[in-house]
Amino acid sequence: MEYKNKTDISPAILRILKKRGITDPADIEEYMSPTPKRTYDPFLMKGMDEASDMIIEYARGGRRICVYGDYDCDGVTSVSLMMTLLGELAADAWYYIPSRFEEGYGLNKKAIDRIAERGTQLIITVDNGCVAFDEVAYIKEKGMAVIVTDHHNVDTQSPDCIMLDPKQTDDDYPFSFLCGCGVAFKLAQAVTRKTGISKKKLNSLLDIVGIATVGDIVYCTGFNSNVEGEGFDRSFRLTGYQEEMIERLSTAGKKMTVVLNAGGGVDMNRWLDKIDALLMAWYPGQEGGTALAEILTGKISPSGKLPISIEKKWEDNPCHDSYYENRPGRECKTVEYREGVFVGYRGYDANGVKPLFPFGFGLSYSSFDYSNLRVVKENDSWLVSFDLKNTGKKDAAEVAQVYVGCVNPTLPRPLKELKGFEKVFLKHGESRRIQVKLDSDSFSYYDMDQHQFVTVPGSYLVQVGGSSVSLPLKEQILIP
Predict the structure, then answer these.
(1) What is the model's pTM?
(2) Tens digits of per-residue pLDDT, 281-298?
(3) Considering only Cβ atoms within 10 Å of each terminal Cβ, which end of the chain, N or C, has fewer?
(4) 31 with 19: CB under 8 angstroms?
(5) Helix (H) / strand (E) containing 258
(6) Contact 151, 166 (CB under 8 A)
C-alpha cells in the first residue's frame, strides 16, 4: 500500500492522524503501511532500561513473577503478550486478572495479599497502575518489587517504582498514543534485544497488539442536553461527523456495536446495516456507565422494550404533518395535534407503514417461546393466561405484552392497543404460566357525545407477544 498524496486517504482518517500529530506525508505513509519500515527504539521510553534488566534478573534467578492485568481487551491481550515473553525466558510466572464486578479496575490490596501468599517476588502490571500510589507502596511493604506498565494519563507524580508510560510528562518517547498492550510490546522488544530471543518470535506478538489496538471499540454516539431538550427540537440525523465515523469504523473488519444516546428516534438508514449491534442507551444518568458495562460484557441480559416506535424516515412518523415546517403556507409556527387516537404505533398500523423498530421491541441475549393462550371471563374482567419459556442459553427477563383490538368497530379505532404487560425473569430452560387481568376499561373508548367511557358489544381480538408486531398468540372473545 502506497499513498502518493493526502488525497488518497479519506478526510476522516486524515483528521484522526492530525489529532495524533501525524501530518508529514512520509510519516502518514509509514503509519498507514501494513509493513512499516521503522519502529521507535524501546529504550527511548523512560524506565525501559531498568524495567528490562529487572525482568531478566528475576526470570533467570527463578524468582516468581506475577503479571497483573485488566479485564478488558487491552488488559487481557497485554497479559497474554507478557506471559508469552516470560515463557521464552523460562520464568516462574503466573498472572492475575481482577474481577470486573467484585474488585473493579486496577490494583487492590486484597489481590496483593493473595499474590504475596503465593510467594511472588515481582509484580508487573499491564494496562493499569499509573496512579496506584497507595497500592504500589503496599506491594513494597509486602516485600515485593513492582514494575508498572500503563498507557493512561498520569498525574504530575508517579508511583514510587519503575514505570513505563509514554504519557509521563518527562518521557521523551516520540509516540504517546500506544495502547496498554503496545507498551507491553515495547518492553518485550527491549527484553528481546538484551536476551537474544528471536525477532521472529517477537514479531509473532504483533497480532495480539493489533487486537488490543482496535478490539476495544464500542462507538458511543448521539446527542446531549445542549442539542436535545423539551423546549426545542433537534435534527433527526446524527450531527457532525458521527455518521461518517460509524461508516469508517465499520470497515475495520471487526464486530461493531453502537451505543446511541438519544431521547427519541434517529435516522439510521446510512449506517444501521453496517454494524452488528445497536444499544439504545437513552439518557441513563450517572449509573448509566455501569448498566452499559454489565450489558456489553454479558453480566446481565438486556430486557428493555421500546416505549416508542422508531421510524425509518421522519416522513413516516404519524405526527410528521402536524409540524409547522411541514405545512406549506403557515407563517405562524404552530403545531396541530391531528393524529387523534392514532398516536405512535396506532398511527403506523392505521397508515400501513412499517417502522424501523416497532413499539415494544427489544432484543435479549436469550429467546422466548409463547404458547397455550387462554382468555377466560371472570366477573367483570377477563383473565389472560399463557405459558412463557426461556428457550435460550442465558438467564434473562422478557416483557410479555397483551394487546386488544375491536374486530368490527363502529367508529375509527386503533387496530390494537396495549392493555397489559408483565416483566418476567426466567432462568434458561425455565417455563412459567403468566396471568394478566383485563378490566372493562381495556375494551372501552371515550364517547364525546356521552362524555364517558363506553364499551361496544362485539368481538375483540386479544393478542400476546414480545412487541407490537410480534404477537404469536391470538384469541377472539365476544363481549355481550
Answers:
(1) 0.62
(2) 999 988 888 888 888 878
(3) C
(4) no
(5) strand 257-261
(6) yes
